[in-house]
Design goal:
Mean pLDDT of chain B: 90
CATH topology of the largest domain in chain B: Rossmann fold
Radius of gyration of chain B: 25 Å
Structural class of chain B: alpha/beta
Shape of chain B: globular
Oligomer: heterodimer
Helix content of chain B: 25-40%
Number of helices of chain A: 14
CATH superfamily of chain A: ABC transporter involved in vitamin B12 uptake, BtuC
Number of domains of chain A: 1
Strand content of chain B: 25-35%
Number of domains of chain B: 3
Radius of gyration of chain A: 21 Å
CATH architecture of chain A: Orthogonal Bundle
Largest interface: A-B, 22 and 34 residues
CATH class of chain A: Mainly Alpha
Structural class of chain A: mainly alpha
Strand content of chain A: under 5%
Largest sheet of chain A: none
Largest sheet of chain B: 6 strands, mixed
Order of helices and strands of chain A: HHHHHHHHHHHHHH
CATH topology of chain A: ABC transporter involved in vitamin B12 uptake, BtuC
CATH architecture of the largest domain in chain B: 3-Layer(aba) Sandwich
Distance between the termini of chain A: 12 Å
Mean pLDDT of chain A: 90
CATH superfamily of the largest domain in chain B: P-loop containing nucleotide triphosphate hydrolases
CATH class of the largest domain in chain B: Alpha Beta
Number of strands of chain A: 0
Number of strands of chain B: 22
Amino acid sequence: MGKPDIGVRNLLVKLLSYGILVFFVLLCLYFDYVTRGLFLSGSNIVNILQQTAINTIIAVGMTFVIISGGIDLSVGSILSLAGVLSTMSLLQVFSRMHQGPAVTAWPLVVAVLVAGMVSMAVGAAAGAFNGFCITRLRVTPFIATLAMMGSARGLSMVFTDAVPISPLPTAFTNVVGGPSILRAIPPLVPLAILVFVVGYVVLTQTDFGRRVYAIGGNQEAARLSGVNVAHTKLGVYTIAGLLAGLSGLMFAARVGAGDPKSGQMFEMDAIAAVVLGGTSLMGGTGSVAGTLLGSLVIGVLAVGLDITDVSTYWQMVIKGGVILLAVVLDQLKVRLGSVGL
Amino acid sequence: MTPVAAEERTVLRMEGIAKTYPGVRALDGVDFEVREGEVHALVGENGAGKSTLMKILAGAQSRDSGAIIIDGQPAHIDSPQSAMALGVSIIYQEFNLVPYMTAAENIFLGREPRAAIPGFVNFSKMYSDAQAIIDRLGVKLNVRTSVNRLSVAQQQMVEIAKATSRNARIIAMDEPSATLTEHELDNLFALIRSLKEQGVSIIYISHRLEEIFQIADRVTVLRDGHLVATKDVKDTDREDIIQMMVGRELKEKIPKKPASIGDVILSVEHLQRAGAIEDVSFEVRRGEVLGIAGLVGAGRTEVARAVFGADPIDGGRIRLDGKDVNIRSPRDAIRLGIGLVTEDRKALGLVLGMAVRENISLANLGSLASLGFVSRKRERDVANRYIADLMIKTPSTEQTVQNLSGGNQQKVVLAKWLFTQSRILIFDEPTRGIDVGSKVEIYQLMNRLAENGAGIIMISSELPEILGMSDRILVMHEGRLAGELSREDATQEKIMHLATGGE
């Protein structure tokens, strides 16, 4: 290979590394152009962020799992189970405290706190059970979380007789699910940002985060370096479950019901966001920053295609194509990059 | 056995075979020939080039130069398929069998007899043909048994049946006796003799020299990629073969600096691990370099892993500074101040995709973290300190280790263990695949560690290294300690004698 070839190749690798960012910007500009500025208007941006928030929260957890070399198919079902149980507890607490027409915010605050705790506890417990099966019973992540995907969904049906928990107190759906911050932004958005920041810090700045990368990169080398592989994996799946659980309550607030059928295929969107963000399914590399971008691409695509009147079915086809393209380009990057060395 | 007649026909001739791997000259102009119907033993130390030569013959490796001539015709062997087409088969130590298929399906894998309807397999023909082959070999085995339910010896028979069913006229066997019992070995020898009578030539690779005198007609000795000699077995003896295997000049300068040897720091008593370690006991003292020699598969790595807690043990106890310790995982071992520099640094020693800095700190992250947060600055300082100290050639602390050379990768592994302040360091083949300069630096580091009172265990297949660096040498053979030699007494011949099962 001559020198110019290597130059061209390096440039290509660079471009491909930023490929998802380039794609994201182009996508926004394209939709903005065809909607004559409507797409990037303030209210639509809030709309996109709201659409993206739930998937971002779940996908941050998924990023931990995938970097560790695993996969979690159960997050959508955990979302529904946590959503159902937390809205049930919300109604309980709220109805007990909210006797008569007294107009104070306390019942709601207490009820939301309790429901929040329940959602995260349910999610974390389900995730920890995944981790237990994977580390102690030595079930592969795919199977362990596939089993949880079925069981958690089944349990949420059992608890509700397949009937959504509704109506939820309007105060709750308005404040937690609606645009209550500055009358424009739903609390979901800052919550997603918070989860992203915490996820970023934990993965990049803590020894736990380092161990997640290490076991994904080379589990045996990590073990021989004294990394407690079982504990680390347990932590990873618990985090993924906890974030899915939290999303359950937030999703219920947004749609106004604790629906046992909610969250179907959410695991796929989360995995798609992680993969679009450049995290390898082989484990060991990746970042939550990439995942955020991947999640935004999926959100922009969904909202943009909606606005431009593309049918839901074609949207699914297009989304599938984008994910495939992203992975193919990533492979190309790896191939070009490794030859260039 | 068979008198070698003058008109014995040569079926295979390999001429001037050369092969270079990055940094290693594996074969350097080796000539090798095999006669029709003979059993030709191929021996040499670890890394002498036996396996490479056989892989080239079988088309599993390409050669840099040299010619292969079969039946007087230049043979074009560039893949296992082309080798098989010419009647060459190789039976590796690790069998190439599909565990959940029957013996017959394995024998005919990829060339199943066809039924009348295209695309369908004629199973009845396949089973009867396979049974006929097995019976002709004089083996008792039902070909309808799935391979994972066969013993190792039976699986070997299936491999041999597979080879003969392809009309192999030259069969190479790599360490065929390594996992066989006495009785199974007799069966194998009987089978080899019957193949011989059918005119099949066998190339027999073994570390057990006594077997050569039982079964082989001729023996070829390789050393460091060179042909030493080919002799008729009746014209040679065990001592002569060992002499040929090891008889190299000790010209490499090993910079050994004996340290003052202190108290016993580690003692291992009656270590036991089923199928790998048989009643191994030894001790290591402060400042001492304990060499462990032996051939591949002798159980040296297994001992290292057991002491380090990487594999569970079935029995025995380990004492540190005279106190019993319970080591159940590498984490326990590291906490107690033991480090293991693994043989395979890419698969076991490093997280290749991580930076130099991250690999150095991995085993001792806790010391750099407060409240779970790793201090990047301190981590970088540590990395820079070891990069300077060990002269690791890397553009920065942030370089991913997969981009470093072998020697520098090994130094990163060493830095990791230095940073854990290990008092006992186990080096498993520490200089394998490493350039000469880095080798010397690693020896010097061992000297320094010993001087500072660490106990060092060094497993090595390179006899000059073992002889040069060790204060004391243990030799292992088939999971047991075959003997112990002092630095003064040890010679290459004595080590090889013990390592090959000599009394």
